[in-house]
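If you are new to this repository, start here. Below is one unmodified record pulled from the training split, so you can see the exact layout before writing a loader.
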Amino acid sequence: MTTPARNLPQLLIEAKRWFDDALQASMRAAGEQPVTAAQGAVFATLDDGGTTISELARRIGVTRQTVHQAVHGLIGMGLLEQVPDPASARSRLIRTTAEGARVHRRALATLAVLEDHLAQRIGEDTITGLRTALTASWGEPPLVEAP
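And here is the target side for that same chain:
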């Protein structure tokens, strides 16, 4: 029995996992506090001025409870803080602390080095093509029927 070819969504998930695993290991080796994938997703989607938990959940595609748990873990680590939202008395914004900004800059620099390593392994043209394909407008998701 042959194994079916992996579909594109599976391959994209595996590629993201490669980056997540390498980033986590590299940050730990550099002496940084370990963060979960959910906590990393919070940093990746956080606006400079701060973002509400509801908006973070929408951007990441998870529940508010999941984001709330990740955010409060990061607050406990001293990487994020909650501040009043000037646009709404009932809302609070989540934003990075000075330490959180430092760690985020280090993570971004580490990702750039990882991309360079990947380019050495699979080729600069492949990386350029991949980036072009992933940043192209794909339009709205279509409604299709399989034959």
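Two things worth knowing about this chain: The helical segments are 8-29, 37-45, 53-60, 64-76, 98-122, 124-135. Residues 80 and 97 are 5 Å apart (CA to CA).
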